[in-house]
Amino acid sequence: MTDAMYASSITVFKQMLGSLDAILAKAGAHVTEKKIEPAALTQARLFPDMFPLCKQVQIACDFARGVSARLAGAEVPKYEDNEQTFDELRGLIARSLDFIDSFSPAQFVGAAQREIVIRPGTPKERHFTGQAYLLSYGLPQFFFHVTTAYALLRHNGIEIGKRDYMGQY
C-alpha cells in the first residue's frame, strides 16, 4: 500500500508536470509551424504585473521539488531558474520529474505529522504539519502556476483543452 502523503503529492506532481510538458511541446510546435518568435509566448503574461509563462513553469517545478523534498525530509534542491526557451523549460520539467521520481513511498511515512518550516529565520517564517503544508499551501501554489501556464498558452492560441491540462491519470 502506498503512503497517502506520497500518493497525494508525488503522484499528482508527476501527472501535472507531465501535462505541462506536453502543452509546452504543443506550444513549441505551434510557434515553429506559424513562424512566431518563441519569446512571444515564453514571455507572455495575462496582465503586466504577472510573471511570464517561463516563470510560471519555473515556479511550478520549484513547488513540485520543494514540497516533495520537505515531505520526504530531504534537502530542497536549488535551481537557477533561468530557462527561457521551450526546450529549456521542458528540460527543467524533466529534471524536476527525475528528482521527484527519486523518492519512495517509505520516505513519506509520517510525513503528515512532520513539522515543515518555510522561510526559516525570516519575518515570513511559517510552521505547518506536513499534511497542512501539502493541502493548504503546496498543492494550491503548484496548481496556481500550472493553471496560469495553461491559461497563458490557451489565451495565446495554442489548441489545448481540459484533456491536455489533465494529462495522463
Provide an overview of this structure:
The chain has a single domain (4-166), classed as dinb family like domain (Four Helix Bundle (Hemerythrin (Met), subunit A)), CATH 1.20.120.450. The chain has a two-stranded antiparallel sheet. Helix 1 (4-34) packs antiparallel against helix 4 (86-101). Helices cover 60% and strands 5% of the residues. By secondary structure, it is mainly α. The model has no long low-confidence stretch (mean pLDDT 96). The protein contains six helices and two strands. It has helices spanning 4-34, 39-42, 53-72, 86-101, 130-155, 162-166, and strands spanning 115-118, 126-129. Strand 1 and strand 2 form a beta hairpin. The protein is globular and about 50 Å long.
CATH superfamily: dinb family like domain
Beta-strand content: under 5%
CATH class: Mainly Alpha
Number of domains: 1
Strand order of the largest sheet: 1-2
Q: Biggest β-sheet, characterized?
A: 2 strands, antiparallel
Annotation field: number of helices: 6
- Can you count the beta strands? 2
The CATH topology assignment is Four Helix Bundle (Hemerythrin (Met), subunit A)
Q: How much helix is in the residues? A: 55-70%
Terminus-to-terminus distance: 18 Å
Q: List SSEs in N-to-C order.
A: HHHHEEHH
Average of per-residue pLDDT values? 96
Judged by helices, strands and strand pairing, the structural class is: mainly alpha
